[in-house]
Amino acid sequence: MPHPSKPTAHGLIVTLALALAGCGGLPRNATLYSPHQPEVSHTSLSLDLPASADGLAPAQTRQLAEWFTAMDLRYGDAVTVADPQERKASLAAVADVVAGFGLAQTSPAPIPGGTNSVAPGTLRVIITRAHAHVAHCPDWSGNAASNPRNATSTNYGCATYSNLAAMVANPDDLLHGATATGHTGSMSAEKAIAAWRMAPPTTPGTAKDSSTRQ
Prior knowledge:
Mean pLDDT: 80
Number of strands: 3
CATH superfamily of the domain at 41-132: OmpA-like domain
Radius of gyration: 31 Å
Shape: elongated
CATH class of the domain at 41-132: Alpha Beta
Number of helices: 6
Largest sheet: 3 strands, antiparallel
Strand content: 5-15%
Distance between the termini: 106 Å
Order of helices and strands: HEHEHEHHH
């Protein structure tokens, strides 16, 4: 049998390479469950402040508020206090500053590194922040021209769960769900409206009736 000429052999090699490229990674997920799920990680930030049995001095209170502002303290952050002496006045002072940012303090907290890591006469305020992301997305590894298993795309779920991870207000809710407070948004709105209606006018007798009469 005669050997193929060089141009013919070259054409066969190119055809074979294209065929193999079309049979690249095959998708194998035969379900509608996406393997791309949000992952939650945590970052801790801390600030040590001088404290006494009487609480925090005005300078330290101001420093704590400025630190919270610089760290962009927001919903979803957990604020804890590590105090080896468990001074109630200091914990209350930190709680007051945290409340000014619309959050509730979770205290006390275990001291990372043990009690020796906090200097005597000081306490440590810790911000724990959760982050959510979806690893290995986008995923176009299954780029085969054929799909003999009728499987879902390897990129299936990346858009949905990446958007969920980006939009969730508190990433920890992805781990254990949101904790209900028993108060709905409408209840809070009604309370604010009732307070506004019951409040006396700032300048009695000067308000004008702007209603339309027919």
